[in-house]
Design brief:
4-stranded antiparallel sheet, alpha+beta, 38% helix, 5-stranded mixed sheet, 20 strands, disordered N terminus
């Protein structure tokens, strides 16, 4: 047995899965290059270069090394749940997207038991030569959208079910009453063309035309709908089982959300990125900042070891520069999640920058300090001035991070249009504003919220107001209403929490 077989697979131990074998999935066409890269990294248990991955592809029989390397370069290999560190690519074992990918690839078991469908015998469809009946039309049309069916199919079906010619008003009333909306109009002009499947009689009534293929087509389209509906009804499972599985999934989500809420989180800013001369560590729970300058930066490791989640811009580079193994932590890389976005309809693509996301989402006009100015302060030895500059950056970064935690997205605005960018580093089970609104509506409790510009993160509830939550009828959404009865713009909410005891 080689020394490689004795090597600890850090990725699979963290994920609590068995190491996969790339060679066993080489023949599966449904597995994309990016997923094969993920499997190769999980198999190895540590970061690899693309060249090394391509060689593994070759040895596993996936593809020749040269061809595999070109495919790997084109698959955007640095996107989540993978990350890039120089020439190395690794797996972010705590990324929220990774768990679902593992399940799809068959690398982890399902969280819930498989639902068994109960197959019942459906009646055999009638012969295409048998006329349609009113009962068939009731089954096929009752309360359903009929816009996908051609008009001639609807008219011929009604005329055959009635067994006689009928007025335009009678046909329209027959169809529209079952569809719940106007589908058929009484304009006879559409049937005056040569070869029309519907004939116009001298007294104005509509009748079945002389085209037998059109009539058979109408029968087939109607009975096809009936078969689809019967298959849906006869391939079902116990409603109580479905409800139980849904409740179990909700309990798992709530338990996971409770675990996530207990994580000790810190945001880091440092400069220079590769080897910080000044490092600031913001403890989000204690609402405090620890500052390290010069030779003190090396002593930051002891403090950082107390946290579970670390976030920042180029956070892995900062941690590497101070000698911290980032794979011990949950890491949130807070760089903009995409490069461009089109906000207004018909507008040009807008470059997505950190300053733009902060300004539009957090409603703060200040910008992050530029690299050139910070570099000049390092060269001049002005570490105190650099520290003050980084403290201002840290204030903006905390507001940016807290907004993303609350909304699970960023909001950009332009000329009355709004666009939302999903946040890749937030776990989908984290408590969101939408879930807070639903909980408040169900419990009939008010919501305490800070609306407008992002507050000082050391005093996050200053300026908070009590807001009423009202569910939107026939929807999962809710309105947020202030004390004057006005609707509050939800995307401008920076902080929110339930008021458990409004009388206190």
């Amino acid at each position: 047995m080689s020394s490689r077989d004795h090597r600890v697979n850090r990725y699979c131990e963290t994920l609590k899965i068995d190491p996969p074998n790339l060679g066993q999935v080489r023949a599966l066409r449904s597995v994309a290059t990016f997923d094969r890269l993920l499997i190769a990294l999980l198999e190895r248990g540590e970061p690899m270069t693309l060249t090394a991955v391509a060689e593994r592809f070759d040895s596993a029989g996936v593809a020749p090394a040269a061809f595999a390397l070109e495919a790997l370069k084109k698959c955007r290999p640095g996107r989540p749940p993978l990350y890039r560190d120089g020439d190395l690519y690794g797996v972010d074992c705590h990324h929220p997207e990774l768990d679902l990918r593992l399940f799809i690839l068959g690398l982890r078991a399902a969280r819930a038991p498989r639902v068994q469908l109960v197959k019942l015998t459906a009646p055999h469809p009638p012969s295409p030569e048998e006329p349609l009946t009113s009962a068939e039309l009731e089954e096929a049309w009752g309360g359903r959208d009929l816009y996908s069916l051609p008009r001639y199919v609807l008219v011929l079906a009604v005329l055959e079910a009635l067994g006689r010619p009928a007025s335009a008003e009678e046909v329209a009333q027959f169809v529209n009453s079952r569809a719940g909306r106007e589908v058929i109009r009484t304009d006879p002009a559409v049937w005056k063309r040569p070869g029309s499947p519907v004939a116009l009689l001298a007294d104005g009534r509509w009748s079945i035309g002389s085209d037998p293929d059109a009539l058979r087509s109408a029968r087939h389209r109607i009975r096809e709908r009936i078969e689809d509906e019967r298959r849906r009804r006869t391939s079902s499972t116990d409603a109580a089982v479905i409800r139980a599985l849904g409740l179990a999934a909700d309990r798992r989500r709530e338990a996971h959300a409770a675990e996530l809420s207990l994580l000790r989180r810190a945001l880091l800013v440092g400069f220079p990125i590769a080897r910080p001369q000044v490092l600031l560590v913001a403890d989000l729970s204690a609402r405090s900042i620890a500052t390290f300058t010069g030779a003190e930066v090396d002593s930051a490791n002891e403090l950082i070891a107390n946290f579970d989640l670390l976030g920042g811009i180029e956070i892995r580079t900062i941690l590497k520069g101070i000698g911290v193994d980032h794979e011990r932590f949950r890491v949130s890389e807070l760089s903009p999640p995409q490069r461009t976005i089109t906000i207004a309809e018909g507008g040009r693509p807008t470059k997505v920058t950190l300053d733009l996301l902060i300004a539009h989402s957090c409603l703060v006009e200040r910008r992050m300090s530029d690299t050139k100015s910070k570099l000049a302060q390092v060269r001049a030895g002005s570490l105190a001035a650099l520290q003050r500059r980084l403290e201002r950056d840290l204030d903006l970064l905390v507001a940016y991070y807290e907004y993303s935690r609350l909304h699970h997205c960023f909001t950009l605005r332009q000329r009355g249009w709004e666009a939302k960018i999903p946040v890749p580093w937030i776990d989908r089970d984290e408590t969101s504003l939408w879930r807070l609104l639903r909980s408040a509506a169900e419990a009939q409790l008010p919501l305490e919220a800070v609306v407008g510009a992002a507050p000082d993160w050391r005093d996050p509830w200053r300026g908070a107001e009590s807001l009423r939550v009202a569910p939107v009828p026939e929807s999962y959404d809710c309105w947020l209403i202030d004390q004057y009865g006005r609707e509050v713009d939800q995307i401008s909410v920076q902080r929110a929490r339930l008021i458990d005891n409004p009388e206190a």
